[in-house]
């Protein structure tokens, strides 16, 4: 089968590996689509130190079930089912203790991050059956690749305590910020503001019905003042000193900021903007199994938005070029999917 191997930082190449065997309790998936995540780009450049050379990355995927482990008939799954998978894999002994907070298991392995596992920039992948989720009937298979980033988004807004009545600012309108918008709108949040520097992304976000602000055009809080002033909750989908400063400045006293972007491993922040202003700063990373399942339903219920969030579908042979271009700041509004077994023709 074809795999995309990170041969050196800044270069990925197609390689040939044997199709993996599903062991007991595992499912063999024929990968249809795998999305390129910002963390993959930073792994590709070597920037975040969270990917290793020789690794096959990929954690935002959909496909069809091609086989089961010997003697297995996992609950609710059948050959040929269109599925996605939750990349957060727990050892058996942790599953009970960390139920509903699987991401807290210190022994978890995240498919696509863990260098010892071949992940889903490949024709096939083997995944524990408990991590496999059947797509809703009629859901386009390519939308299944959006479930993972939507789960990241849904978990972040749950961490921030969004109930639906708040005014919410999203700092950073890239794919995670866009998924946050999808999740906020699905929760009924009427006033969503997005700060984004890229014009093509701003256009996409405007089409999604949000109020979009260009932070490079002037002070963000001043711009927000034309739309009712500071917000109750801010989701920082960038994660830099600059974005956190914007997030703190634009959130009301006593409000909440959720840090989900991982742009910089270290940031400086104004301590008084948290202490004397009594703001709450919460962190968010991945999702629970429940968040993941809820995100799948959310994507299934919003096919038009899901469609709008996929900007480009490319073949594996073009992946290295796409990674290079994305790393160099290629201005693509939404998600790029690598199609290993496309189920539809695309004109994007
Ligand atoms: Zn990701």
Average pLDDT for all residues: 95
Helix content range: 10-25%
Radius of gyration: 20 Å
Helix/strand order, N-terminal first: EEEHEEEEEEHEHEHEHEHEEHHEHE
**Total number of strands:** 17
Name of the CATH first level of the largest domain: Alpha Beta
- The N- to C-terminal Cα distance equals 27 Å
Overall geometry comes to globular
How many helices does DSSP assign? 9
Describe the largest sheet. Answer: 7 strands, mixed
Q: CATH superfamily membership of the largest domain, which one?
A: Medium-chain alcohol dehydrogenases, catalytic domain
What does this protein look like?
- The chain has 348 residues and is α/β, with parallel strands linked by helices.
- Helix content is 25%, strand content 26%.
- Strands 3, 4, 5, 8, 9, 16 and 17 form a seven-stranded mixed β-sheet that branches. A six-stranded parallel β-sheet has the order 12-11-10-13-14-15, sandwiched between helices.
- A hairpin with a 2-residue loop joins β1 (2-8) and β2 (11-16).
- α1 (38-45) crosses α9, α2 packs across α3 and α2 (147-159) crosses α7 (289-301).
- The chain is globular.
- It starts with a strand and ends in a 9-residue tail after the last strand.
């Amino acid at each position: 089968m074809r795999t995309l191997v990170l041969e050196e930082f800044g270069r990925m190449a197609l390689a040939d590996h044997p199709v993996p065997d599903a062991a007991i309790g595992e499912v063999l998936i024929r990968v249809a689509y795998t999305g390129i995540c910002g963390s993959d780009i930073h792994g590709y450049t070597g920037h975040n130190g969270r990917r290793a050379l020789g690794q096959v990355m990929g954690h935002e995927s959909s496909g069809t079930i091609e086989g089961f482990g010997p003697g297995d008939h996992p609950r609710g799954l059948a050959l040929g089912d269109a599925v996605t998978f939750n990349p957060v894999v727990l050892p058996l002994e942790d599953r009970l203790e960390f139920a509903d907070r699987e991401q807290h298991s210190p022994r978890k392995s995240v498919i696509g991050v863990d260098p010892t596992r071949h992940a889903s920039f490949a024709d096939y992948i083997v995944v524990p059956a408990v991590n496999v989720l059947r797509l809703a009937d009629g859901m386009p298979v390519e939308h299944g690749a959006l479930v993972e980033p939507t789960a990241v988004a849904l978990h972040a807004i749950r961490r921030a305590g969004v109930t639906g009545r708040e005014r919410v600012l999203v700092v950073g309108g890239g794919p995670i910020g866009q998924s946050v918008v999808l999740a906020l709108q699905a929760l009924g949040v009427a006033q969503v503001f997005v700060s984004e520097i890229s014009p093509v992304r701003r256009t996409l976000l405007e089409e999604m019905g949000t109020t979009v602000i260009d932070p490079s055009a002037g002070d963000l809080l001043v711009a927000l003042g034309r739309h009712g002033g500071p917000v109750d909750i801010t989701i920082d989908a960038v994660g830099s000193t600059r974005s956190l400063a914007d997030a703190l400045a634009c959130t009301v006293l006593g409000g909440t900021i959720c840090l989900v972007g991982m742009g910089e491993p270290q940031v400086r922040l104004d301590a008084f903007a948290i202490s004397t202003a009594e703001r709450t700063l919460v962190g968010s990373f991945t999702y629970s199994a429940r968040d993941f399942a809820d995100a799948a339903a959310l994507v299934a219920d919003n096919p038009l938005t899901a469609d709008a969030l996929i900007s480009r579908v490319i073949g594996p042979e073009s992946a290295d070029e796409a990674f290079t271009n994305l790393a160099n700041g290629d201005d693509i509004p939404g998600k790029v999917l690598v199609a290993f077994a496309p189920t539809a023709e695309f004109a994007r």
